[in-house]
Amino acid sequence: MWRIIVVCLSLFAAGASQAQSVIRLARIADIPDQYVGGEMLRTVYAKLNIKLEFVDVPGKRALALSSAGEVDGEIQRIGTLSRDYPTLLQVTPSINYIEPAVFTTKLHFVVDGWNSIRDYRIGIVRGVGSSEAGTRGMDRVTATTGIENMITMLDADRFDVMVTDLFSGLVAVRKLNLQARIYPLSPPLERIRIFHYLHESHRDLVPKVGQVIAQMEASGELATLREALVKQVLNTP
Questions:
Q1: Nearest to 124 by CA among 106, 105, 108, 140
Q2: Which residue ranges in the chain fall short of pLDDT 70?
Q3: Out of 7, 18, 62, 186, which residue is the most buried by the measure of CB atoms under 10 Å away?
Q4: pTM for this structure?
Q5: In this predicted structure, what is the pLDDT of residue 128?
């Protein structure tokens, strides 16, 4: 009798160890680069036999949920996030990069860093750390609820320029069929490495995920995957 019970328990434990775990990550809604980063992470976590689920919310709400542990982490954020949200642990190396860029409807100038837009009325998406950091201290910055809302406001002349990731901006402008009116200026403001974050309750998972990212980066798999995902989004009607 005891032998039967022990065998059953052993089988149950083996099955449980092989079962796929689930991690829920906050994903900033309607931001294409968040989709790309999420799909990159889906491949990373699959190598650890962990399934990802995404919770689509505005940027500030995402941070509130992830820092409180109501979801398990963030897909990708700037490198200084843990300074303001110490419960979120950075996974290294970086998973992705973004290139904040200036979009406009009528201006023409060569972009030379963030200070080159200081004198303009600027639109950003609330909760996007790179945009908030880059425009900090500037006088005429409007924080919008989302990228499509920001594009609509730019088209209505509510501000002179908007700042968003180049890739995300191109996708969203095309989605709204405004590519004949709204265009990016060159070059991008900068290139920023961005990192995956996990809530401190998953501290033991941080080095494991980081090791997989490092292996994929060294092999070139990470760059190839990003390139394929970006092309997929840009080519989707």
A1: 140
A2: 1-20
A3: 62
A4: 0.77
A5: 87
**Are the beta carbons of 102 and 120 closer than 8 angstroms?**
no
Place of tokens 């809604």: 29
DSSP 94-121: EEEEE-EEEEESS------SGGGGTTS-
d(CA 122, CA 155): 13
- Give the model's pLDDT for residue 46: 97
Alpha helices in 25-80 (DSSP H): 32-46, 59-67
Encode burial over 128-156: b for 16+ CB neighbours within 10 A, e otherwise: bbbbbebbeebeebbbbebbbebbeebee
Say how far apart CA 170 and CA 182 lie, in whole Å. Answer: 9
Sign, CA dihedral 118-132-217-27, equals negative
What pLDDT is attached to residue 11?
41
